[in-house]
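Issue 218. Parser rejects a valid record. Input:
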Amino acid sequence: MKILGIETSCDETAAAVVEDGTRIVSNIVASQIDIHARYGGIVPEVASRQHLLTIIPVVDKALSEPKLAWQDIDGIAVTFGPGLAGSLLVGVNVAKAIALARRLPITGVNHLEGHIYANWLNREKPPDFPCLCLIISGGHSDLVLMKEHGQFEKLGRTRDDASGEAFDKAARILGLGYPGGPAIEQAAKSGTPCLSLPRAWLRDSHDFSFSGLKTALWHLAQKEEILANPSRVADAAASFQCAVVDVLVTKT
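Output the parser choked on:
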């Protein structure tokens, strides 16, 4: 069975064909990084309009690259949330139109469950249950216990900024550009985590918090005039990255 998946929850337009739930037949992604970089972050209205321009070519390529026809597709899956409302509407409406025109069944997929189920793709041995899932992205930082297929228990979540969002804001503080994750990682390679930054452990809880860490970095950057010294910027990037990863790994 071949399923065409469509994903437009944020700033990337993606379509893929997956066979029997595990084998990736094609995977096409149209990135908007260069478009949003000039703003230092994702602009929802710009993202949704860009999805309108790219969704049909992306879907077409997902079928043409592996030389598939519509007759080879057995169903449609589409992200229905969480995500940016305007972006989600593009993917959902295109998926519904295809399903109606081609008389194909359609299934809505939770964005976060999609992150988890990516661990079943192109693997000889699937994960064993129960499994602990750490979901860290631009908008989410969640710790989830997956007991069986479709059975999830949320153990922890961010109380303020998601880790990816914190990386974007930290990169902006340090003048490293967008997207923040790769920018911080690249700068950190030439630095050392020698600066003192706080960790929000939130005792007796599996929740995360990164807002205080971000604020501490801002105060540190102003106080020690870090921005005027590239080596100090690298140290700040390494220290921030270490603080975030320390909390994520320890709580997991």
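Fixed in the parser; the record now loads. The chain has a mean pLDDT of 95.
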